[in-house]
Amino acid sequence: MNRYGFVSAEIGGRTLSLETGLLACQATSSVVVRYGDTVVLVTATMSAHARTDIDFFPLVVDFEERKYAVGKIPGGFVKRGGRPSDESVVQGRLVDRAIRPLFPKGMRNEVQVIVLPLSVDFDHPPAVLGLIGASAALTISPIPWHGPLGAVRVGCIDGELILNPTSEQTEQSTLELVVASRPDHVMMIEADADQISEELMMQAIDLAHQENQKVIALIEELRQQVGVPKAEVPLYLVSSELKQAVRDFAGASLREAILNPDKVAREAGLQQLKEEIVVQMNTPADPDSPPPYEGRELELSMAVDEVIKEQVRQMILEEGIRPDGRAPHEIREIRCAVGILPRTHGSGLFQRGQTQVLTTCTLGALHEAQILDALTAEETKRYMHFYNFPPFSVGEVRPMRGPGRREIGHGMLAERALVRMIPPEEEFPYAILLYSEVLESNGSTSMASVCGSTLALMDAGVPIKAPVAGIATGLVFESEERYVLLTDIQGMEDACGDMDFKVAGTEQGITAIQLDLKIPGLPRNIIAETLQRAREARLFILQKMLEVIPAPRPEVSPRAPRIFVMEISPDKIGDVIGPGGRTIKKIIAETGAQIQIEQTGKVFIAAPDGESGERARQMIEALTKEVAVGEVYVGRVTRLMSRGAFVEVLPGKEGLVELRELTDRRISRPDEVVKVGDLLRVRVKEIDSLGRVNLTARGLEQTLETLRSSGEAAARPAGGAPQAPRPPRPAPPRPPQGEPRRERKPEPFEDLPKPQFRPKR
């Protein structure tokens, strides 16, 4: 397509424009979306021929990050960029979930949608613009698609809803909501929130749906300018005649297999029965005759699947019977446990029916936070959640090649459900890493991961604001008057149903939502009813969880590092680091602590135990303290001069005690009362204009022998906290008995031979 078109409208107080016919004209269609300084190119391309060897629609959505869009050079050694970031995978899934239900059923032509952000400003994130661009590109193209749809973001500050909030508003917002909708119904919802009530969430969804009508009108205007008729593509649907033949041949046996409450036995029985049905129905009565469905084996297999789906839906709609015998609102048996792994910092096991997830929590220093290299303003992430779905969880054998798009998406959803409940860095200065291992799967493992994460965090002693639980609600929909909501859906109900509506939250409100649909839109009344049904379910689950661990443990695990936080003057950072880093390396070597210093002067100390951390803190504190006039210190004598003694009152900071200030009596030499290495209680008399410290010991009670044997080491203010022990300096050697004692210690360079001057010749 190369016809040029351009439209624009005001959306959320700013101009949104759509342009086509200028870039990427060899794609089936392409649209450039502009909003603020964010520019996103979206292409949609369809293959010329259908794939007859598959029984699903081959749609691929790729969100391609380019760091040049925000003026960054990619981090690491490979500047070209590597595998997609987790954030780009999640944004691609966002577009996919919204557009997929609107393609014709039975379509087998490959379709690829590529979202390519070319320029990004942080006030206008590219993900929603990519969704709008995909909707526009598919609408004006010959690709069969029942659009358009619009998409907007909604935030909430102090109870006021805001359309497409800026980055500054997003930081203050208690809601980050994305809604995609058609003219009549909502298509997709994704949200994370800070315990938003169901009523306020519905208001936000309504506002988004209303604003989406402006986006839809804009796309329709572009279609009128450059749109082309939709192409005719073959649709591979199972014939009604073949489905009826399957019903007549094996309807009763299929129903019996469906009603097996055990997932493993049910799926194994259905698979075996399906294979037998295909073989038997395709076997001719006369051995010399050809098979009755020769060349239609794939369609016959699809027909069996269609009949299974029909029977599951019919039992739910007409008889109120679910495959495992539960009522529509009933939740499967729940079991919880914590502290089951002795060497981890925290662990939680959550099981709901035949869905079982084990989550572990690991605490670390802040410098162990994840470094982000994506199209976002954030550079690090201290709370991380990863989700693994090994093949044994569904009784399969397949190679493990790292996390796929589904695993990444489920992990990010569980992360968003809890991230707002994590205490801020100032209150809990730890990096937090959660791993959810799916050990058994039969529906909604992502919501089980939310529950397992809550248990693991509380077991590790993380003071979360409130415990979070999650539930998935399914739907069997025939009309707006005839439908059934299914609380806590299992795998078969997800496969045969029309919706997977995941809601996570606390007792107070919602923290995350993700809506997946298979039908072209969800009426408002069903959304509201689902939110209320999900609230009832999560309160029940929270009660079960709190019976095991009612609150976070009062202290972090003894195996977790101890974190100390202190503030120093930014001018003192160099004193702590020292020349070439020698000072800080010495502290690390002596205490075993890890030390991170920010430019603001905030110091984070991560130590293996409390004693080591406190020692490191005291050593840093001693390095950064200022000598104050009138303050009393216990210092160590470092050298003697004819005019007095130098005393180290703080590490690296010395002051002079003149002879007349050493004692109340008259002396002629300092070594009459002190020696190098002695501890001496002194008071700061003054600090002159050159920064020199003058001290006095007069009027202070002290017994040198007591101080010398007390074991006090580093200098500290009198009455203050004890400092790290410091070995005494060796005393100078005494002259052998019988030899005359030296009258005084020579001044520097006094013992060197005097220069001899010779007369010129």
Straight-line N-to-C gap = 104 Å
Can you give the helix content as a percent range? 25-40%
What is the number of helical segments per DSSP (H or I, 4+ residues)? 16
Strand content: 25-35%
**How would you sum up the major sheet?**
8 strands, antiparallel
Tell me the overall shape.
Answer: elongated
For this entry, what is the oligomeric state of its chains?
single chain
What's the Cα radius of gyration? Answer: 37 Å
Number of β-strand runs:
30
Describe the fold and architecture:
Helices cover 30% and strands 27% of the residues. It has 761 residues and is an alpha+beta fold. The strands form six sheets. Strands 8-7-9-10-21-20-18-19 form an eight-stranded antiparallel sheet, with helices on both faces. Strand 16 (383-388), helix 8 (405-419) and strand 17 (431-440) form a beta-alpha-beta unit. Helix 6 crosses helix 7. It is elongated, with a radius of gyration of 37 Å.
What's the layout of helices and strands?
Blueprint: E1 5-11, E2 14-20, E3 29-35, E4 38-50, E5 59-63, H1 86-99, E6 109-119, H2 126-140, E7 150-157, E8 160-163, H3 167-172, E9 175-181, E10 186-196, H4 198-226, H5 240-258, H6 263-281, H7 297-319, E11 334-338, E12 346-352, E13 355-364, E14 370-371, E15 380-381, E16 383-388, H8 405-419, E17 431-440, H9 445-459, E18 469-477, E19 483-487, H10 491-496, E20 499-505, E21 510-517, H11 524-548, E22 562-567, H12 573-577, H13 582-591, E23 594-597, E24 602-607, H14 610-624, E25 632-641, E26 644-650, E27 653-658, H15 659-662, E28 679-687, E29 693-696, H16 704-709, E30 716-717
Parallel strand pairs: 5-6, 16-17, 27-29
Antiparallel strand pairs: 1-2, 2-3, 3-4, 4-6, 7-8, 7-9, 9-10, 10-21, 11-12, 12-13, 13-17, 14-15, 18-19, 18-20, 20-21, 22-24, 23-24, 25-26, 25-28, 25-30, 26-27, 28-29
Helix pairs in contact: 1-2, 1-8, 2-4, 4-11, 5-6, 5-7, 6-7, 8-9, 13-14
